[in-house]
Amino acid sequence: MSAVTNAPTVPTFEQHGLKQHSDGDWANKAPVQTRSERFTSTNVEDFPAVTGREVDWRYSPVSRLTALTAGELNGSSYDVTSTDADGVTVGWTSREDTRVGTAGTPEDRASANAWTAFEKALVVDVSGEDAKAVHVRRSGLGGGARGAHTIIDAAPFSRALVVLENSGDALLAENVEILVGEGAQLTVVSVQEWDDTAIHLANHFSRVGRDAKLKHIVVSLGGSIVRVNPSTHLAEQGADIEAFGMYFADAGQHLEQQVYVNHDAPNTRSRVTYKGALQGDGARTVWIGDVLIGNKAVGTDSYEQNRNLVLTDGTRADSVPNLEIETGDIAGAGHASATGRFDDEQLFYLMARGIREDEARRLVVRGFLSEIVQQIGDADLEQRLQAALEAELAGTSVS
């Protein structure tokens, strides 16, 4: 008598009405659904050509980015200036530096192209428990396609503010790695005040250590196309990230940010707040916020939000928050997104106190965006950015 086994039946795609199509093995080409499972590589040849149908490029004007996604990039060193601060050194290091690749790996072709091309990495080394600030400035990179790599390395228990200031002309793809050692407190501010024709694609990879805190702030005001994608790995217990962003898009400008926070350890915390304003025909902003709470990240406390203020007709703001949770033992998690015009009650309150309507509207915009600027912690820079906002609003009839 033969034995009977009740082996489990493995469901097939055909059982659910799905079949392989003529364009190949459809079952093995299903889109990646989990953020952490995206393909990564430091070699540009490992990525297919960008078409705009990819999940990470679908909101971007890819036809204008071919020089950075498919072209050859100049990876040589460039002129950079920095302020002096005790415990901070700024210099260049080779590709063989062991810190290269510690914080993250490219997920898109432009990032991989920059990684493949760079010859030396700019390094900002931070040490010492006393608070300090350093400004790293670059300007006039030129119109040639360029690839770059930067490392910010905060030693354990160090404290610092590092400001990356960008201006002038550029056609740039780059990667920035941020390493935050145990117990360190680091603020990194990336300011994009490029010329009107500049194109800048940046990926920021951060690794935050045990009981360390990173405050990451992105300010995008200038440039034709600016895409800054911060990715943070909360790798050890007690790691903390506060991610802020402020952007102001004018007519024809495309400002994009794709934020990713990976909670990968117990008792980690994240707060993501991005705010933007849009004015003028063809002004476009994109914000995508991905938060992953992994199965090891018990006790996680996470919240992300994006707010967009539409000032005129003819603009478009895309806002896509995503939250993945793989453990039920968390302190809290949530997300929010809103895009709209002025709050009539705020305008009424100001106008009832004798303020003209046009000035009242500008006060609302200033108050809306100033919350982000005030997070920087550098009075001179905050004042300069407030002045830049005033210049954006000057002569504009917000409606």
From TrEMBL:
<dbReference type="InterPro" id="IPR037284">
    <property type="entry name" value="SUF_FeS_clus_asmbl_SufBD_sf"/>
</dbReference>
<dbReference type="InterPro" id="IPR000825">
    <property type="entry name" value="SUF_FeS_clus_asmbl_SufBD_core"/>
</dbReference>
<dbReference type="Pfam" id="PF01458">
    <property type="entry name" value="SUFBD_core"/>
</dbReference>
<feature type="domain" description="SUF system FeS cluster assembly SufBD core">
    <location>
        <begin position="148"/>
        <end position="368"/>
    </location>
</feature>
<dbReference type="GO" id="GO:0016226">
    <property type="term" value="P:iron-sulfur cluster assembly"/>
</dbReference>
<comment type="similarity">
    <text>Belongs to the iron-sulfur cluster assembly SufBD family.</text>
</comment>
<feature type="region of interest" description="Disordered">
    <location>
        <begin position="1"/>
        <end position="26"/>
    </location>
</feature>
<protein>
    <submittedName>
        <fullName>Fe-S cluster assembly protein SufD</fullName>
    </submittedName>
</protein>
<dbReference type="InterPro" id="IPR011542">
    <property type="entry name" value="SUF_FeS_clus_asmbl_SufD"/>
</dbReference>
<dbReference type="InterPro" id="IPR055346">
    <property type="entry name" value="Fe-S_cluster_assembly_SufBD"/>
</dbReference>
<feature type="compositionally biased region" description="Basic and acidic residues">
    <location>
        <begin position="16"/>
        <end position="26"/>
    </location>
</feature>
